[in-house]
Structure formats: C-alpha cells, structure tokens
Amino acid sequence: MSQLALQLERYPGKKAIVLLTDGGDNASVLNRESAARRARKAGVPVFAVAEGDALKEAGTAQLLHELAEATGGHMYKAKASKDLRHIFEEISQDLQNGYLLAFAPQEESGDQSWHDLQILVKDVAKPVRVRARTGYSVD
Description:
The chain is α/β, with parallel strands linked by helices. Helix content is 36%, strand content 16%. It has a single domain, classed as Rossmann fold (3-Layer(aba) Sandwich), CATH 3.40.50.410. It has helices at residues 2-8, 32-42, 53-56, 58-71, 83-96; strands at residues 17-21, 46-51, 74-78, 114-116, 135-137. The strands form 2 sheets. The protein has a 3-stranded parallel beta sheet.
C-alpha cells in the first residue's frame, strides 16, 4: 500500500486507495506504522474495508481505523459478503460528493515535521460531516 500511495502522488486529479483486508499483514516489507505514515504523507485518502479475521483482531481494526481517519478516508466493517456492495456504493458516493480544499503553507526553513490541520465549518443550517487528512509535511 505504501508504494501505491507514493506512486499516486505523481498523477494529477482525485485519488483514493480502497484497502480490502481479511486479516493482519503477513507479507509487507514495511511495518504497519511506516505504511500508514507514507499514505498519510501522500495525502491520498484510504478507505479500509475489514472482513473476516480483520474484524476479530482488535489491533488490525484499530490500525485500519486510524489509517483511514488520518488520510481523510473511512473504515468499513463487512460482516458478511453481502455488505460489500453497499460499502463500495458508499465509497463511490463519498468520492463523487466531496469538495477540494487547498492551501499553500508559508515558506518554512527546511522544517519537514508533521503539521496538524483542523477543518472547521461554521454557520451551517444543518450538521455536515467533514473528513479530511489530519495534517501535512513540507518536503
């Protein structure tokens, strides 16, 4: 997943990663935290879909939730295969009904640390749901 996130940075336009897993990682070169850090840094939202053993492993479910939230995506739980259709329809709707908010940070003197971001929507008639990446790094 981390390689995919890095490759997607090169392409213009809207991007997303849909991660469907049935359990813990058993073949990655990077550890889970490194992969999550790369995806977050790339700014590509991750929509994680957990099924099978991934729903039973608290650590895996927590990591997927944190990864999805940190990148502006969402984590879904597929308790049965019939749930997948609804989940993918929801992801599709989410990607079609979003807004792009951009900004340019002030020039910083080589500071490559992570900077937290918080998006607030004020004075709206009805509640809105905001999902966005949680920060950025300059590099």
